[in-house]
Design a protein that fits this description.
With 192 residues, the protein is mostly helical. Helices cover 64% and strands 0% of the residues. It has helices spanning 3-12, 16-37, 41-57, 68-86, 106-121, 126-137, 142-149, 153-171. Helix 1 (3-12) crosses helix 2 (16-37), helix 2 (16-37) packs across helix 3 (41-57) and helix 6 (126-137) packs across helix 8 (153-171).
């Protein structure tokens, strides 16, 4: 039995310690996801906390089938959408956020990489942005993405393929790659 399954079972039995452990297990991922969808860190932290509060509040409605992570991402998505409606801010461009650092710090590199991905996907339609973000920003499998966005697996695959094709054409407008030359992914989200 996986640790997640064990914790879900203990929560169903009313053990409060299991709730804390489950939150500790998933909080960094959910916070990072919320950082993608909110204009600042404090709102992202609020969204992550609200996500877990809702997950616990509606836990009795959740039927565990080994997909708690997808359940959390669904709640986080809706929470971030609500926050975006409430607080409208403009995004910071990659150039505006450039910081000259004399040394290389892994955390700064991760932030710079996240900002570069955000800048890259801004030209995509919202539905494609979300799939690219979940796949490459959050490193979810295609199955997990399908559950999180409530779409069939094949739809997620085709949207990811379409997004990659658009990104390639934007990055190299002179190079028109045929669709059959794009990397394909298996159901598990791994390149073929």
């Amino acid at each position: 039995m996986a640790r997640e399954d064990e914790l879900i079972q203990r929560i169903a039995q009313g053990e409060a310690d299991a709730v804390d452990e489950l939150i500790t297990m998933f909080y960094p991922e959910i916070l990072r996801y919320c950082l993608w969808h909110t204009p600042d860190r404090s709102l992202a932290e609020d969204a992550a906390q609200e996500t877990f509060l809702k997950a616990i509040r509606y836990f009795d409605r959740y039927t565990h089938k080994g997909r708690f992570k997808s359940f959390l991402y669904q709640i986080a998505t809706n929470t971030c959408i609500d926050l975006q409606r409430k607080y409208r801010h403009t995004a910071i461009s990659l150039e505006e956020s450039a910081i000259d650092i004399a040394y290389s710090e892994p955390a700064f590199e991760a932030i710079r990489s996240d900002m570069a991905l955000r800048q890259l996907i801004t030209g995509l339609p919202k539905d494609l942005q979300e799939i690219v973000l979940l796949r490459f920003g959050q490193e979810l499998t295609l199955r997990e993405i399908a559950k999180a966005v409530n779409l069939p697996l094949r739809t997620v695959q085709s949207r990811l393929r379409c997004a990659m094709k658009k990104l390639r054409s934007e990055m190299n407008p002179s190079e028109k790659e045929p669709a059959d030359k794009l990397p394909k992914e298996t159901e598990k989200g791994e390149p073929l």
